[in-house]
UniProtKB/TrEMBL annotation:
Organism (species): Capsicum annuum (Capsicum pepper)
Alphabetically ordered keywords of this record: ATP-binding, Coiled coil, Cytoplasm, Leucine-rich repeat, Membrane, Nucleotide-binding, Plant defense, Repeat
Protein name: Uncharacterized protein
Domain NB-ARC per the UniProt entry, residue ranges: 7-176
Domain of life: Eukaryota
Length: 319
């Protein structure tokens, strides 16, 4: 996450548009969507702009009752209104109505974090009242289609960090933001940062490991050569995040995604090569379709890209 990302989101949330507006953040798992949303939620300008700030986490296992309970807990901390102590015994509709009632009037920001489907968005969207007072909803999702569905105009796509920002983040986490780094570690350190593919979560995991080893060239070279093992040893972090995206895939896309593991770590795979592999392996299924196998495979690829599971290096008309 860059300072520019935060500036963009805060500006969108405080624009003069009087109607209720929905701002969306999308990007692959581990890229820092929740961190960006949290920094926006806590930003001083948002404190001045909004009377009430509510944070709810949806996640894959969606339960509307849990979402509304989380919203009510946020509301109870920020208002003088005494919410009934037995609201945890109420059904989902009663909880939803109570949330809607408490949001009518004040200017609010509701952060809906980690939403996975348009159906879930449809089920909760109508609860948030539009009082024509510049209230805002900030939505984070891994699914670009969900973000565009919620609002195609105020959509912010997060990109991986460049090498400069990746290296800076790694240094800040290993040495502290106020301290410099040994010059002899800069070259190998930048190689490590580059291997993290611009993902803040991966950088954080590797930085945590580097903080525990000797600050010597030999130790850091060893980390560079064993990064895959280090990441695999923390399944609750990087692999856990990736696993959520994988399990959310429809069955026909799972073998296509897993096939990416047959390429080397830093390979830039041409589209035609990937499509031919999928066709040869029998991964492409096209019942009741007039499309060719190649066209269906291209649809599969676009779906994986939309789900932020594949990073596009560049697009060409002849790819």
């Amino acid at each position: 996450m860059s300072c520019e990302d935060l500036e963009i989101i805060v500006r969108k949330l405080t624009e003069p548009l009087s109607d209720l507006d929905i701002v969306t953040i999308s990007g692959m798992g581990g890229i820092g969507k929740t961190t960006l949303a949290r920094k926006a939620h806590d930003h001083l300008k948002i404190w001045y702009h909004c009377d009430i700030r509510v944070w709810v986490t949806v996640s894959q296992v969606y339960g509307s009752g849990n979402v509304w309970l989380e919203a009510l807990h946020c509301l109870s901390k920020q208002t003088n209104i005494d919410i009934e102590k037995d609201y945890e015994k109420k059904d989902d509709n009663e909880l939803a109505n109570l949330v809607q009632k408490k949001l009518k009037g004040p200017r609010y920001l509701v952060v809906v974090d980690d939403i996975w489907s348009t159906d879930v968005w449809d089920s909760i969207r109508t609860i948030f009242p539009d009082c024509n007072n510049r209230s805002r909803i900030l939505l984070t999702t891994r699914e670009t289609k969900v973000a565009i569905y919620a609002n195609p105009i105020s959509h912010h796509e997060m990109n991986p960090l460049n090498l400069e920002n990746s290296w800076k983040l790694l240094c800040d986490k290993v040495f502290g933001p106020k301290y410099g780094h040994p010059l002899e570690l800069e070259e190998i350190g930048k190689q490590i940062a580059e291997k993290c593919q611009g993902l803040p979560l991966t950088i954080s995991v590797i930085a945590g490991h580097l903080s525990k080893v000797a600050r010597t060239l030999e130790s850091w070279m060893d980390v560079s050569q064993t990064m895959g093992e280090i990441i695999a040893s923390r399944p609750d972090k990087c692999l856990g995040v990736l696993g959520l995206s994988y399990h959310n895939l429809p069955n026909h896309l799972k073998p296509c995604f897993l096939s990416m593991g047959s390429f080397l770590e830093d390979d830039q795979v041409e589209t035609w090569r990937l499509i031919q592999l999928w066709i040869a392996e029998g991964f492409i299924w096209w019942p009741e379709s007039d499309k060719s196998l190649e066209e269906v495979a291209e649809d599969y690829l676009e779906d994986l890209i939309s789900r932020n599971l594949i990073i596009v290096n560049k697009r060409r008309f002849d790819c």
